[in-house]
From TrEMBL:
Entries under PROSITE patterns matching the protein: PTS_EIIB_TYPE_3 (PS51100)
Lineage, opening ranks: Bacteria, Bacillati, Chloroflexota, Ktedonobacteria, Ktedonobacterales
Source organism, top-level taxon: Bacteria
Protein name: PTS sugar transporter subunit IIB
GO biological process, one term: phosphoenolpyruvate-dependent sugar phosphotransferase system
Keywords for the protein's UniProt record, in alphabetical order: Kinase, Phosphoprotein, Phosphotransferase system, Sugar transport, Transferase, Transport
Length: 110
């Protein structure tokens, strides 16, 4: 899913368990990006699917429900020099796309 406006497209990969609830967060992030005129592509993939896509994203986010996989996800993301972070559980639970977008912007180099 993506929001295409002006500037260079940010590509975010969210690693989650099945993507059901994460799709709501993706929509919220895209709305927040559109309101700020930010080009954004967000893909939510399961822990078993993300490895093939990690080198094509700018930022890797980890959904709270798979925090037990954090070290292995970080190892893969860092191996291709991608910033990686856990999504704050409160922001995930409330589907606060604006807060998660701010987290993404903090992870990217200026």
């Amino acid at each position: 899913m993506e929001c295409v406006l002006r500037g260079s497209m940010m590509r975010v990969l969210i690693v989650c368990s099945w993507g059901m609830s994460t799709s709501l967060l993706v929509e919220s992030m895209l709305s927040a990006a559109a309101a700020q005129h930010i080009e954004l592509h967000v893909e939510a993939l399961s822990a078993g699917e993300y490895t093939a896509q990690v080198d094509m994203c700018d930022v890797v986010l980890i959904a709270p429900q798979i925090r037990h996989l954090r070290k292995s996800i970080e190892k893969i993301a860092h191996s291709v020099n991608k910033p990686v972070a856990m999504i704050e559980p409160f922001h995930y639970a409330t589907m606060d796309g604006e807060a998660v977008l701010k987290q993404v912007l903090r992870l990217l180099p200026a």
